Input
Amino acid sequence: MSHYANPAHAHSSARGGHSQPHALSHALGPQHHAPSNSSSTRHRMPTVEYKPTKWASAMAGNGRQKRVLPFDLPGQSNQGVSMRDLSNRGPNAPIAGAGDQIFVPLGVQKISLRIIWPGYQHVEWNRSIEVSSITRAGLAYQVASNFARFFEKSAYETPSSATHYLISPAGVRFEHLYLVSLTNTIDNVWQADVALDLR
Output
């Protein structure tokens, strides 16, 4: 089977909000390499990273390792989990490490989830999620629920630029989305790494 890479996943050099890169070593995935996927029908979405203007030049060359939190079904690796299934089944969805309280080691209370979709950068989506005792499955459900609402909102928006990822009944739909991982891109901001399966 073929493997895909993420050609547009540019690693941000922005500063992180914590200085404990190994505190979640049991829960986090690799910090340097985007996960590959062995599905021949699934491909990775390009990631548009959030980069506030004030950090863009000041933090250039920082080289901070990002924390990456993976999501998979039990017994699988780097395949991701259907967001539609996560949305339907809630925090009881059967995913690997479902009960891990992933933020407890860091003492983090809240994170900011940002969704930036290619061609829809003008659609602002920044939501605070309480994570002090959240489980991996609970977080996956929260992320999927946010993407569902984002898609509902964006369906009425006109893309600001040409995009291969048009959100429409004839284009990309919520049911096509797979949550592969969540990455801490800057400070307390986390963004989803998403794969599409257009079958």
Remarks:
- The radius of gyration is 16 Å.
- Strands lie at 42-44, 68-70, 81-82, 110-114, 126-130, 177-186, 189-197.
- Residues 1-26, 29-36 have pLDDT under 50 and may be disordered.
